[in-house]
Amino acid sequence: MSFEIQLYTTLSEVNRIRKDLTSYGTITGTLKNESSVMSPIILISADASALAHVNYMYIPSFNRYYFIQNVKSIRASLLEVQCRCDVLMTYADGILGNSAIIGRQENLWNLYLDDGSFKVYNNPNIVTKAFPSGFTTQSFVLAVAGSPQQSSSNASTNSIEQSSESLLEQTE
Amino acid sequence: MATGLYGKTVGLYKINGIYDINTLVSQFDSLFAQKILINRNFNLCIPMTTDPTKYSTLLNTFYINNGGMIQEATAQLMDAFINKWQLSHYLFINSTSQTKWNGIKGYYPYVYEPDLDSTYFLWDGSTDYVIAFTFNVVNAGMTSEYTTFLYKRYIKRSNPGTHHSCDALTNLNVSNYRGFYPNGTITFYNTSNNRRQYLNFTNRQTYPDGSAQFANQTSPSYDTTSAEEFWTGAQEDYKPVKPDTDPFEPGGTSGQGGGTGTFSDTGDIIGEPSLPTLSAVDTGFIQLFNPTLSQLNALASKLWSDDFFDNFIKAFENPMDVILGLSILPVAVPSSGAREVTAGNINTGVIMNVASTQYTRLDCGTLNVLEYWGCYLDYNPYTKCWIYLPYIGIKPLDIDVVMGHAVSVKYHIDILSGACVAMIFSDGTQVATWAGQCASLIPVNAQNYSNLFSGLLGSVAGIGTTMAGALSGNIAMAGAGGIGAVAAASSIAKIDCEKSGTINTTAGMLSVQTPYLIVERPRQARPAYQNTFTGYPSFITATLDELSGYTEVVSIHLNDIPATDEELVEIDKLLKEGVII
Fold first, then answer.
1. How many Å from the N-terminal Cα to the C-terminal Cα in chain B?
2. Cross-chain residue pair B558–A123, CB shorter than 8 Å
3. Per-residue confidence at B539, pLDDT binned at 50, 70, 90?
4. Which chain B residues touch A14 with a CB distance below 8 Å?
5. Does B326 touch chain A (CB under 8 A)?
6. What are the residues facing B130 on neighbouring strands?
7. Beta partners for residue B99, in sequence order
8. What does DSSP say about strands B536-543 and A119-130: parallel, antiparallel, or unpaired?
9. Are the beta carbons of B513 and A120 separated by less than 8 Å?
């Protein structure tokens, strides 16, 4: 049974979900016996040049997109094309509609999570930052034994003598 | 007639005639209605054929040895038991070695010459509680070929391929025993003497095995007088006794938990404490002055003057004895006015400012420690922090505590002793504190001078010791953690070196007088557009069509995708390896 094959070239990454496709027309082919829909081997009646710029295909009958893995020439104008299903492109709508716990993302991230793959150099930066103020003055501190209220007899005598002197001075 | 557990005539079997079925059933009811019937879900697994790999689990199976009753009577008895006790299956062997299975096809071919008294075990499949009770059977003279007591049973619990046998026990004392069946072992626990006696169902040989089936078999005697209490106790305390074969059993088992957090981040602000209220000055035993240089000069002159000396030596040997201490402090001393200095009760005539309090404080201000990246690299262990504190030294500071916060330093100082405490606050709450010594002692006599030098030498020695310790014993291996240094070929972790010793007293006065932070942060080795190649950590739930760019999925339940199972597996694998949306 032959079926239609839409030929494309894609320059997108293999792991990109929706690939950018450049069409290279359609062709018909048949499925080789005992090959699967997931990894079909398709027989195409064409010259190798017809697939020279093609690396991707879509088979409407299978409703799947395929990477072209290998093209073999069986004989003149008969090619055997080995393909592998691109599940990401085939089921892009369904995949993108699902929710998931994202482990790493290009734009949606939380940088407070420890990233084990991050690299740093072995010579770190050292920065010092002073506080606004510190110890700016110096003072003497003298500790003396005794109470400031106490005074000795000598001291009393001295004070009396001083008082007497002042009294004498006054009277004089 | 043999006696049963209750010291009563069980009367289950009478080989000399046919018992009235209703009487038999009634006897069962009266004997066991309050006890055994609570465990109706008897569960025996009995091999259906000679093939040891084929077993069936019979629910609600009640085994009874008909003890020679004729087939019809046995059948009626079993039917009555089944109806009464809602048994789904039963097994019995009649006097002609024929077995009857209710709903079970097969046979049980092994019959051995039994002992006269046989004990059979039934257990509750829901609780593993084993009830041991005895059907005492007397064959009453029947010839051996008609004696079809079931002597051995191969009993399989729930593990396919494993079969156990249950031998009939004789003279089993079930008084004060509990039984349970934990994977092949029936354990009777004697609560009166705290001993366990095991009837081991394991280690069976190939099917069939005619040897003794029990390991550690015990054969205590019947204590029929206390059997009632046992069964009563069993009824009241109907709980399976857990075997102590698992050493971790006392720790309990795992289960669900969590989800009960308060999500409260409130806490207590540990603020700056108040200064002490008691002061040495208030005692009256000392005076504390805050003199100027000229005042000190005047006092020294006075103390060594002939006039003062002549008066002083009448009471003291040395004028310096009244001078308790003279020091330089790196803070302003609060003063409460001026007063004449009295030394040894002698007025010196020298006026000095009086220290109004023994304690004072110093606020060094606040620094806002800001993130450099705003990512995990700003925190431990990737970014490190130390703080230099005057009169204390350089101390490590947990960067996790200060990063992103307002950090302030405050000192409390005792101007009498020179002791100081530095307190580190993060957003107003104290997160670290260290003690130091900020008074620089001025010797006023030979003893002071000697003490000063010995103290300095001691601190120098301490510095040396600390350094040696840092280099040898106290090396903190700062691992690279999740970061692989580009020099990852070197497996040697970085060494964390001490940055200072104790910087106090005079050494402190010679050092920096302002606190400062030392922050060590890594240099990133980030290739251009790294996020487009590898992405950055996310761990966020999102719908894939809301995203763009490189994406790695941790977990996804793929649905609404009309793919084959192989395709779904591949999709899951690719999403986890990384795709571009």
1. 86
2. no
3. confident
4. none
5. yes
6. B123
7. B93
8. unpaired
9. no
| Residue among B551, B529, B580, B575 nearest A109 (CA) | B551
CA distance A141 to chain B (A): 5
- Cα–Cα distances in angstroms (integers) from residue B119 to residues B88, B151, B396, in the given order: 22, 10, 74
Indicate the SS3 state at residue B219: coil
Residue A171 contacts residue B365 (beta carbons within 8 Å): no
Rounded to whole angstroms, the Cα distance separating B386 from A129 reads 11
Q: How confident is the model at residue A49 (pLDDT cuts 50, 70, 90)?
A: confident
Query: Positive or negative CA dihedral for B511, B517, B522, B528?
Result: negative
**Chain A residues whose beta carbon lies within 8 Å of the beta carbon of residue B484:** 116-117, 119
Distances (CA, A) of A137 to A134, B503, B563: 9, 18, 81
What's the pLDDT band for B581 if we cut at 50, 70, 90?
very high
Sequence-ordered strand ranges (E) for B284-322:
286-290
Residue B119 and residue B134 in contact, taking contact as beta carbons nearer than 8 Å:
yes
In this complex, is the C-beta atom of B345 within 8 Å of any C-beta atom belonging to chain A? yes
pLDDT of B362: 96
Nearest partner of B135 among B116, B110, B154, B152, judged by Cα: B116
- Decide if B171 contacts B159 (C-beta within 8 A): no
Q: Look up residue B116 and give its amino acid.
A: L
Structure token pair of residue B545: 């069509």
- Asked if A72 and A80 count as a contact pair (C-beta separation under 8 A), the reply is yes
Work out the pLDDT band at B507, boundaries 50, 70, 90: confident
Q: How many Cβ atoms from other residues are within 10 Å of residue B566's Cβ?
A: 12
DSSP line for B2-46: -B-TTSSB-----TTSPPPHHHHHHHHHHHHTTTGGG---BEEEE
Angle between helix B71-85 and B21-32 (nearest 10): 40
Task: Dig out the tokens for B321 from the structure.
Answer: 């004895």
CB of B449 less than 8 A from some CB of A: no
Q: Is the pLDDT of residue B492 over 70?
A: no
Q: Which two tokens stand for residue A132?
A: 């606004």
Report pLDDT for B557: 95
Q: Mean of the per-residue pLDDT values for chain B?
A: 59
Residue B244, C-beta contacts closer than 8 angstroms, at least 6 positions apart: none
> Chains A, B: CB contacts under 8 A, how many?
371
Q: What is the ipTM of this complex?
A: 0.82
Q: What is the pTM of this model?
A: 0.54
- B540: closest CA of chain A, how far (Å): 5
Give the residue, B60 or A89, on which the prediction is more confident. A89
Q: What share of chain B is helix, strand, coil (3-state, %, to 5)?
A: 25, 30, 45
Report pLDDT for B385. Answer: 94
Using an 8 Å CB-CB cutoff, list chain A residues near B354. 148
Q: Is the separation of the CB atoms in B63 and B150 below 8 Å? A: yes
Which CA distances in Å does B525 have to A43, A74, A124? Answer: 51, 52, 11
Q: Collapsing DSSP states into helix, strand and coil, what is residue B540? A: strand
**Cα distance between residue A100 and residue B578, in whole Å:** 13
And the tokens for A2? Answer: 């032959």
Distances B522 to B31, B283, B374, B382 between C-alpha atoms, Å: 82, 56, 13, 7
